[in-house]
Amino acid sequence: MDVISLPTPQEKGKVSVEECLAARRSVREYKNAPLSLAEVGQLLWAAQGITGPEKQRTAPSAGALYPLELYLVAGNVEGLPPGVYRYGPHRHQIFPLSDGDRRHELAEVALDQDCVRYAAAVLVLTAVFRRTTRRYKEKGIRYVHMEAGHVVENVALQAVALGLGTVPVGAFREEDVKRILKPTAAEEPLYMVAVGRLKRSR
Description:
Layout: E1 4-5, H1 17-23, E2 30-31, H2 37-48, E3 68-74, E4 83-88, E5 93-99, H3 103-109, H4 114-117, E6 121-127, H5 130-136, H6 139-162, E7 164-169, H7 174-181, E8 188-198
Antiparallel strand pairs: 1-5, 2-8, 3-4, 3-6, 4-5, 6-8, 7-8
C-alpha cells in the first residue's frame, strides 16, 4: 500500500470553542456508519498537526521536543482500507503498516471495551520518552504525560466540532498493544481515543 495524503485540514469551523467545551462528553456507543477520510484527517491534525513555520504543532510540547507518535486503527472509514496506519504530521499523510480490521483485537487488549470494538476508528498515542528525558531527566516523564493529555483533549474538542463522538481509553495491556501496532522499540503506548458517529445528534 502507498502512503496516503489526507485532505487539507480546515482551520476555521462553524462551532465555537465554547460550544465544543460545553458539549464535550465521553461517548461509548456509536452508529454503525463510516467516517470520511476528511474527518479522520481533521482529527489527526487536531492531535499532532503542523501549525507554524517552525514546525509547531496543535498541542504544546515541553521544549518543542515532540515525543509522541500517533497511530490510526481504521475499521470503518470511507475510501480507506481497514488497517493500522502511522500519522506523518509534516506532510499530513498516513503510512500503512498492516492490513485488516484490528478493532476487535484492540478491544480485547483494552480489557474488552466495546467502545473500542465498535468505533469507526481508534487513535493510539505512543511516546518515545527519551526525546524529552534526555533534556529534562526524570521530570520529562511527567511532561510527556501532560502532552498526551493536551493531545487527547484536542481530539475530543475537534470531534465535537465535527459532530462525532469520542472517548479516551487508558485501560489496556501495553505489550499487547505493541504487538498489534508494531511500533519502534523505543515507543510506549500511552492513550487511545475511540471515535465514531453519534447514535443521535446532540
